[in-house]
Amino acid sequence: xxxxxxxxxxxxNREGIEAAEKxxxxxxxxxxxxxGLHKLIELNLAEAQESNKDDLMLLRNIIEExxxxxxxYACQQCGFxxxxxxxxxxxxxxxxxxxxxxxx
Length: 104
Ligand SMILES: [Zn+2]
What we know:
Elements: H1 2-15, H2 17-30, H3 34-47, H4 50-69, E1 73-75, E2 81-82, E3 98-100
Antiparallel strand pairs: 1-2, 1-3
Helix pairs in contact: 1-2, 2-3, 3-4
The protein binds zinc ion (ZN).
Zinc ion binds next to loops.
């Protein structure tokens, strides 16, 4: 997603916010991501009417909170950490021991 965000900024500078939004929406369709969603809301905020800003800012805050909460996954048996969910732990080869990490 990092590359998508960089491209989105480039498009925004060259072609404007609308083109950047379109690009981010296309990327989100292909691969949903919290970072992409955050970017889309930021782009919308930049051109939002005053009356719509509160809602968008609320959405942005929720996403930032979710992003903060999601610190990857950890095995409860061996402590293996990863960014994606494994059903079979690569660390200890046990099934279904990996759970989302909510707090440090
Ligand atoms: Zn494990």
